[in-house]
Amino acid sequence: CVRDIVEDSRPDAIFHLAAQPVVSVSRRDPWGTLENNIRLQLNVLEAVRQVAPQAVVLVIGSSEEYGLVTPADLPVDE
Description:
It is a single chain. This protein has 3 helices and 2 strands; from the N terminus they run αβααβ. It has about 80 residues and is mostly helical. A two-stranded parallel ribbon has the order 1-2.
């Protein structure tokens, strides 16, 4: 359970990388992917809120969020 892990470790920071990692799967099942990713993130955030509210959480996204990036678009400005 995520809460148990956060409670045991009492982290100062969490780098949340857990999500559907396979783009083809996320395109084939967008609702399942959305539900999976939201539930994972909510579990992490709730655990932090409950037992380690001082922790900083960094949620990492995918480069796919930028869409097609051509050489003319580089560097990508976030």
